[in-house]
Amino acid sequence: MGTFGTGPFSSDGALDFLDELAERPPRQRAEALRHMLGYVLAHRDLLGREYFPDQVVAAAALVAATLPGGEQLQHRLTQVSDEPSAVIPPEPVPDLAPAALEALHFVARPGGPWHQGWTTETDQAEAQLTIDGLTAILHAAHS
Fold first, then answer.
1. Domain residue limits, the chain
2. How far is CA 130 from CA 19, 20, 46, 66, in A?
3. Do 61 and 2 meet the contact criterion of CB atoms below 8 Å apart?
4. Which domain of life, per UniProt (predicted)?
């Protein structure tokens, strides 16, 4: 049975995504995020087959981690990765904020796939706080 938590990096799928990103040279990470977010937005019908909500949330969180206000996300990465710098793009990527925000809204809109399956009210609230925090950071960079 896999791990699935309410934080942006607290699921097996998110951790697998981080591992894949860590295998890339630092200068290719932003392009990998751009590709992933573009793929999600172009292939919404493949949600649950080719990609999963927790991976989209993790990708949006990585974009947010490079932006002002994303410092707490960098700290969260230190809790799940020996080398958080191995996954964060080396430069801020504000140009990815609109795509990250749109992809995040797609999977985490009210009643969306990210919100399905939480079994307790506490988990539901924590999952919503995760999305609210990411949305605020991404929206500030996009404005």
1. 12-142
2. 21, 22, 23, 16
3. no
4. Bacteria
